Known about the structure:
By secondary structure, the protein is an alpha/beta fold. It contains four helices and five strands, in the order E-H-E-H-E-H-E-H-E. The chain has one domain: Rossmann fold (3-Layer(aba) Sandwich), CATH 3.40.50. Strands 3-2-1-4-5 form a five-stranded parallel beta sheet, sandwiched between helices. The site of magnesium ion (MG) has 5 residues, from loops.
Amino acid sequence: xxxxxxxxxxxxxxxxxxxxxxxxxxxxxxxxxxxxxxxxxxxxxxxxxxxxxxxxxxxxxxxxxxxxxxxxxxxxxxxxxxxxxxxxxxxxxxxxxxxxxxxxxxxxxxxxxxxxxxxxxxxxxxxxxxxxxxxxxxxxxxx
Length: 143
Ligand SMILES: Nc1ncnc2c1ncn2[C@@H]1O[C@H](COP(=O)(O)OP(=O)(O)OP(=O)(O)O)[C@@H](O)[C@H]1O
Ligand SMILES: [Mg+2]
């Protein structure tokens, strides 16, 4: 089954479930060095208000934090013989992830059911819900 998928995207927000998703994707990649692994993190705009005026702003310290996380992940990926890449995108997470999948012809997404938000009444968070609905390929939801 695994070799059917050659370009994997891991959606990573540094939550426990996204760590689990990354781990699972790493294990998949270890089974075939032809599998390409792309770890995608999306920095969300800070304030919702500027949207109304067409301005979007980002928190520089959050960007720095995510860049540090990105470097840590890159180190974890180094031992793999596979082609691996990490990305820090900016915008609406669900939309950016789906856009990335399309642009890069990815054929498999791995992500957590929930992320950093504390609300747990629903099984899926808004990002995983959006990606499952809109991605053009299979999505593995880790729980
Ligand atoms: N900013 C992000 N960048 C990359 N992947 C993300 C991002 N946010 C969420 N994800 C992915 O989506 C999964 C589910 O997170 P999601 O954000 O949907 O749930 P939540 O944080 O619990 O709820 P919500 O954000 O809707 O309040 C995460 O485990 C992660 O794999
Ligand atoms: Mg979230």
